[in-house]
Design a protein that fits this description.
261 residues; mainly alpha; transmembrane helix
């Protein structure tokens, strides 16, 4: 199978790199850069390293996916069977990251276990396996990767929290606004474009060449990920409302704009 050649090697290398970043680079880097990291409990250090790796993954794959979306003529001209070379590389990086993240989650479940994240990772892995193996649906696989643009802000919100920044501090308010806006933009606002392109190719000759299993996986994974994104957007929206209510209180506005005491 094609997946047993270059894509599998890329997945394996990606997995090893993200494991190395989690176990060695992140803890050493932040022990040097951020003295407060040394004083965190073990549970927070573990999640800190997880989120650092998550941010690094997002900073790699999201710009590549945007480049493909804007400039890769092969993928944009043939949404189902276009040249998937660059998309395969990006998906392989993400597959390695997801496998690494699952390993970390299962090995420290009491600290980081989240059933929604496990479902998200497994659905994404199953869907991406078709692209890696058969090179099918590169446009739609790449489109999903652009959602990673929201990840750095989501992780930064947690970093601010464990470092003691008040939820109504200026850094938190700025990051929270960006997080809500970018999350909505790249995960929900783009859905009409995504499903317009789905209906554009539905029933075509190229569509009927896609194996039935791949078609079912494509549709079911798309709907599942969109439901999860709606749930996460609801969480973010409730959090934003809570912060706004707190900020309206006079005592909250009198707090310093950095950390709490």
């Amino acid at each position: 199978m094609a997946m047993l050649s270059i894509p599998l090697v890329s997945v394996f290398c990606s997995f090893l790199v993200f494991q190395w970043l989690f176990h060695h680079v992140s803890p050493r880097l932040f022990s040097w850069l951020c003295p407060a990291f040394l004083n965190l409990p073990h549970t927070h250090k573990t999640e800190w390293n997880i989120r650092t790796v998550s941010t690094l993954h997002a900073l790699v794959v999201s710009p590549i996916s945007l480049y493909i979306f804007l400039f890769d003529e092969g993928v944009n001209e043939d949404l189902i069977w276009g040249d998937p070379t660059l998309v395969k590389l990006n998906i392989a990086i993400t597959t390695g990251y997801l496998l690494s993240d699952l390993l970390v989650m299962f090995s420290s479940w009491e600290i980081t276990g989240d059933k929604l994240f496990v479902v998200h990772h497994l659905v994404a892995l199953y869907a991406y396996s078709y692209l890696l193996e058969q090179g099918v649906l590169p446009y739609f696989a790449n489109f999903r990767l652009m959602s990673e643009f929201s990840t750095p802000c989501v992780n930064q919100r947690w970093f601010f929290k464990v470092l003691g920044y008040h939820k109504t501090s200026v850094p938190n308010l700025v990051n929270g606004t960006l997080m809500a806006a970018v999350f909505f933009l790249v995960r929900l606002a783009v859905l009409p474009v995504y499903y317009y392109r789905v209906f554009e190719v539905y029933g075509t000759q190229a569509y009927h060449r896609v194996p039935t299993g791949a078609r079912l996986t494509w549709m079911l994974s798309s709907l599942s990920l969109d439901v999860l994104n709606l749930l996460w957007m609801w969480r973010i929206w409730k959090g934003c409302l809570g912060v706004l209510r707190s900020y309206r209180r006079p005592e909250a506005r009198d707090l310093p704009s950095s950390k709490t005491d």
